[in-house]
Amino acid sequence: MEFLQPSTWEEALAAKAAFPDAVPIQGGTDVMVEMNFDRRRPDVLLDLGRVRELADWASDAGSLRVGAGVTYARVIAELGAMLPGLALAARTVGSPQIRNRGTVGGNLGAASPAGDSHPPLLAAGAVYEVASAARGARRIPAHEFYLGPKRNALEPDELIAAIYLAPAAGGQQFAKVGTRNAMVIAACSFAVAVDRSARTIGTGIGSAGPTPLQAPDAERYLAGVITDEGLWESGRLPDEAVLERFGALVADAARPIDDVRATASYRRHALTVMGRRTATWALRDGR
Amino acid sequence: MRLKCTVNGEAQEVDGVWEGESLLYVLRERMALPGSKNACEQGECGSCSVYLNGNLVCSCLVAAGQAEGADITTVEGLAREDGLHPIQRAFVEAGAVQCGFCTPGFVVATHDLLRRNADPSEMEIREALAGNLCRCTGYTKIVDAVRLAAERLELERRQA
């Protein structure tokens, strides 16, 4: 096995161009499990842990650029106030040991429908920056990034550079159902982001379809009711029936299957409940 | 590859390391440091917990090549010259050790908790140790041990 350890982004892209089959590794929380269990023996392992450019985040013209190598622990500690939805999801990832190593970029690379970062990033309208040595950087909106189970829009010579998203302009919430409080892969999850400046509602569904999904009908419905009833101005919560309808529309947008973690019907039920609850919390949070 | 790193304050150099093997394997099989335990190999159980450059990690999820040049502290590095670390003593005294297999990981994770939070609540203890599994004790005595260790360390600080 070839082990490549670039220390700059330029070197990393050159390595990926030279070895398109190289498996990138950051915190190792996915890749090492596959190697330990002999499910994967890559010919080339590309360690991105020393690429300094990936480990930083910065605020730029009202937007945040979070490097793909920023760990969940740092998202919680350093970005919790600006990105509460992503930070809430990060808190549910694994355990302290996992959050110290695992990265949001790694979550995107693995592109598991159950990845905890995806719902809050979809809800907040994040855009991902990917790059190759040959063609430079390009940006992919979160909702165009996920192509299938564990498949994303990266070309073989590309690597994930960063995530762009605006600091929260309203309440953001995340909920996840699983068998215990820690160390759990979501049976299903849901994130909602209220944007009081744009007057929109964003959603993200996890682990209830072949990819992470949005619920556009639910988003339009709730934002429409809030606008029609003047609730952006008054700060009052919509009626319970409206929030229940929102939850039902979230569940309608899911495409769940029966598997080891839950049945499709349970996932739909849980999304109905999580949709209503998280929307209530998020609308209450940001008033 | 030849792997160079610092383990428990000592410079280590080992030859013939496969870059894709885990740091846990390197520690146990190549450096004769069997304190970190090998159980799940997927980051679920925490019994291989070590410090990597000051961060609590599962050593089974660190590729050997990623540990090149790193500063590592294992459970073996926590004991003091005069014997057990106060956290280790507290685990023994509180009855938090039964079969003992998970204990090294719990000791390192507790060390990480108490250096950041000298007087954690029960919720904080359970949250900090959520990545460490014990199939014997039911955790009650482990929580007792963490509290006892916190008290002892506080006493030490006052006497220092």
Describe this structure in words.
The complex is a heterodimer of chains A (287) and B (160). Helices cover 38% and strands 22% of the residues of chain A. With 287 residues, chain A is α+β, with helices and mostly antiparallel strands. In chain A, the strands form 4 sheets. In chain A, strands 4-5-10-6-7 form a 5-stranded antiparallel sheet. Chain B has 2 domains: 3-77, Ubiquitin-like (UB roll) (Roll), CATH 3.10.20.30; 86-159, [2Fe-2S]-binding domain (DNA polymerase, domain 1, Orthogonal Bundle), CATH 1.10.150.120. Chain B is built from 5 helices and 5 strands. Chain B has helices at residues 23-30, 86-93, 103-116, 122-128, 140-159; strands spanning 3-7, 10-14, 49-52, 55-58, 71-73. A 5-stranded mixed sheet of chain B has the order 2-1-5-3-4, with helices on one face. In chain B, helix 2 (86-93) crosses helix 5. The longest helix of chain B has 20 residues, at 140-159. Chain B is globular, with a radius of gyration of 16 Å. The relative contact order of chain B is 0.15. The mean pLDDT of chain B is 97. The A-B interface holds A 1, 3, 5, 25, 27-29, 31-33, 35-37, 41-42, 45, 47, 49, 73, 94-98, 100-101, 181-183 and B 1, 18-20, 22, 41-44, 46, 49, 55-58, 60-63, 65-66, 68, 109, 112, 127-128, 130-132.
Mean pLDDT rating of chain B: 97
Unreliable segments of 5+ consecutive residues of chain A: none
- Globally, the shape of chain B reads globular
* Number of helical elements of chain B: 5
Structural class of chain A: alpha+beta
What does the largest sheet of chain A look like?
Answer: 5 strands, antiparallel
Distance between the termini of chain B: 45 Å
How do the helices and strands line up, and which of them pair or pack?
The complex is a heterodimer of chains A (287) and B (160).
Chain A: E1 2-4, H1 9-18, E2 23-25, H2 31-36, E3 44-47, E4 57-60, E5 63-67, H3 72-79, H4 84-91, H5 96-101, H6 104-110, H7 118-123, E6 127-132, E7 136-141, H8 142-145, E8 146-148, E9 151-152, E10 159-165, E11 172-177, E12 188-195, E13 200-206, H9 216-228, H10 231-234, H11 240-253, H12 264-285
Parallel strand pairs in A: 1-3, 2-3
Antiparallel strand pairs in A: 4-5, 5-10, 6-7, 6-10, 8-9, 11-12, 12-13
Chain B: E1 3-7, E2 10-14, H1 23-30, E3 49-52, E4 55-58, E5 71-73, H2 86-93, H3 103-116, H4 122-128, H5 140-159
Helix pairs in contact in B: 2-5
